[in-house]
Amino acid sequence: MSDTVPDTPVPPHPAATLILLRDGPEGLELLAIERHAGLRFAPGATVFPGGRLEAADHDPSWHDHWRRDRWPGADLSADLAHRVAAVRECVEECGVLLSRDPPEAAALAGLRAAMAAGEGFGPVLARAGLAPALERLVPLARWVTPVGLPRRFDTLFFLAPAPSGQEPLCDGGEAVGALWATPRRLLEEEEAGRRRLVYATRMTLLRLAGCADMAAAMACAKDGAAAGEELPPPILPCLVEAAAGPVWRIPAACGFLPLETSAEHVRLG
In 27-160, where does DSSP find H-type helix? Predict the structure, then answer.
């Protein structure tokens, strides 16, 4: 299959990303993964765990988890399937499960092995007696891949406190490495040419770099989170011609800066 630009816009795939947070000796730290260099999308890039929504992420059984975690009769969230996908992808890619109760190491390993063998996330969780802590995720932003690219995603980015007692272990397929790092360290390593960041990841790091600790980051997300039953407004970068040359521009008041970035400094995949 060719990666040439399509004649008609490709519909973006719904996707979700989970940014796990913790407080480290230098302040806020994020869990990031390094993508396999052989992948067709964002090869070798440093990203956060995440991926496309699957049909099973919309299963009505997740409604019970949501209402049990919130309160009886609670309204369903429009981003419920995204929350399920974000937690599921984090398990698949780096073996970390955000659950209500801490899983034993053996149970977590068995869960991951069963998923790798093709079993569904919900059934293996139920068999292990585990429930995802879907209510702990807070939406930060919704990034949409620009029009004109052959692969497009409509991705909801979530923040959540990292579960204690779990160390990331990458699957070796999509993710080949994992690390905890401050946003500033990742940005500095990209500036030095030692790390590859796609645009949405870089913009997320720039926003979180101003947060001193996990509490500040979570507050930042809650301030911008959509209230009620709707998804956050999409952030769709557009390529425009500026006086100094082409730039990628994002909507004003979207919560991210800068609003314009030189096209030569932007990686989209």
Answer: 61-69, 80-94, 105-116, 121-128
